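Sample entry as discussed:
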Amino acid sequence: MTATPHQPDLRSQLETLATEAFRPELAEIDRMPTLDIARVMNGEDTVVPAAVAERLPEIAAAVDAVAARMASGGRLVYAGAGTAGRLGVLDASECPPTFNTAPGQVVGLIAGGPDAMVTSVEGAEDSAELARADLDALALTPDDTVVGVSASGRTPYAIGAVEHARARGALTIGLACNSGSALAAAAEHGIEVVTGPELITGSTRLKAGTAQKLVLNMLSTITMIRLGKTYGNLMVDVRASNEKLRARSRRIVALATGATDDEVERALTATDGEVKHAILTLLADVDGPTAARLLEDSGGHLRAALATAQG
């Protein structure tokens, strides 16, 4: 195949990235017993939490900025290609059942669109223009946040998303797994979790992917805590869309209130299955409509509604 003019430059770029580095000591890993490979791989994974820990101040600052925007009606948008894009879509898709977020409140964009979740879409990650088009379809506002996600920190789709969002006045976060990345530099909040060379050279679905999953978990979960989507460590905004979640709803109300099963059932019935409302009716001894009003006045924060009800 004839090399295109940009290929030598890209190769030299990749050779400078820690996530792409070759590890000679693992050159014969394919000859090792399976259990030994598993031990090596497990050992590799232990470095990820420590790498994330080094970036906790940056993560916390980003969360506070995201929460402030979302409290004003903004959205949280992830944008990435390949594994990074899939992880963003995964995190976004889990927010509605976990935190009862509104449709479109947390969005995952992957280069190449939904088909790219399961198949490779050639060239999509190299297109900053595609990122701009995907974001324009969302009609960004200054209350929104766009998180560009890329292990290398050089993916044009992720960088293009961040640059375009920033030009539109949205908050921007760049999550990468290499230091000195263009992605982090392009964003207001740069988070670089450096996990080092992979077990399989360049396979950033491994340590880098794990690190990205951990950070995205933090961004969405702690933001939702700040927005009052939990009461302590209970998912009081859980959407009971199936039998398992209905059982979880009953358990959450019981844990929060200490009420009997019959009391829990009556409270959930009186509040149309709304966990947060049911808890408030039990703890504050108010009826369903009063609980709804108190929660609306408190912006959905159960602790604040309780404080108001209890004087």
About this structure: The first helix runs from residue 7 to 14. The mean pLDDT is 92. Residues 284 and 309 are 6 Å apart (CA to CA). DSSP finds 14 helices and five strands in the chain.
